[in-house]
Design brief:
The chain is an alpha+beta fold and 164 residues long. The chain has a domain at 3-114: 7,8-Dihydro-6-hydroxymethylpterin-pyrophosphokinase HPPK (Alpha-Beta Plaits). It contains 4 helices and 8 strands, in the order βαβββαβββααβ. Strands 1, 2, 3, 4, 5 and 8 form a 6-stranded antiparallel beta sheet that branches. Helix 1 (14-28) packs antiparallel against helix 2 (63-76). The longest helix has 15 residues, at 14-28. The protein starts with a strand and ends in a 6-residue tail after the last strand. 35% of the residues are buried.
């Protein structure tokens, strides 16, 4: 059964939308686990800060069915499928890893290239799966995070409870 890791982020009512998305996803994957949530500046455009985290779960669903459920959770949080790439997001759910799958698939490139480029993906990933070995780089998530350049890094831990 593949272990799946998903980056979740929002900069539109982020705590509310992340709580909603996690609750919806737990209906399919009750044993879903989550990293700490982190606030960080928007990347690629000027906008409100994002709150990001990484979730992990085991599934017997094929990748297209996982993507379908992720898209449904995004829609339930108010994100239209045709939303522009570099813009505010009520919810963004991106598959980082689907087991050891490598390659281009409809709706996903695995492993997601941004995983090792974006601290708000790699840091939380190393938190919930430190010993997991990246399928193409051959290094653990903890090793990749340890060697990640952190000069000027702005990531602040936040709780999901409370108002946005």
């Amino acid at each position: 059964m593949p272990e799946v890791f998903v980056a979740a982020g929002s900069n539109v009512r982020p705590r509310e939308n992340l709580r909603r998305a996690l609750a919806l996803l737990r209906q399919t994957w009750p044993a879903l686990r989550s990293s700490q949530a982190w606030r960080n500046p928007a990347v690629g455009f000027e906008g409100e800060d994002f709150v990001n985290l990484v979730i992990g779960f085991d599934t017997d669903l094929p990748l297209p069915a996982v993507l379908e459920r992720l898209h449904a959770a995004e829609a339930a949080c108010g994100r239209p499928r045709e939303a522009p790439k570099w813009a505010p997001r009520s919810m963004d759910l991106d598959v980082l890893l689907y087991g050891a799958e490598v390659g281009e698939f409809p709706g996903a490139v695995l492993p997601r290239p941004d995983l090792v480029r974006r601290p708000y993906m790699l840091g939380p990933m190393a938190e919930i799966a430190p010993g997991l070995v990246h399928p193409t780089l051959g290094r653990s998530m903890a090793e990749l995070w340890e060697s990640f350049p952190k000069d000027g890094l702005v990531m602040t831990p936040v709780g999901l409870e409370g108002a946005d």
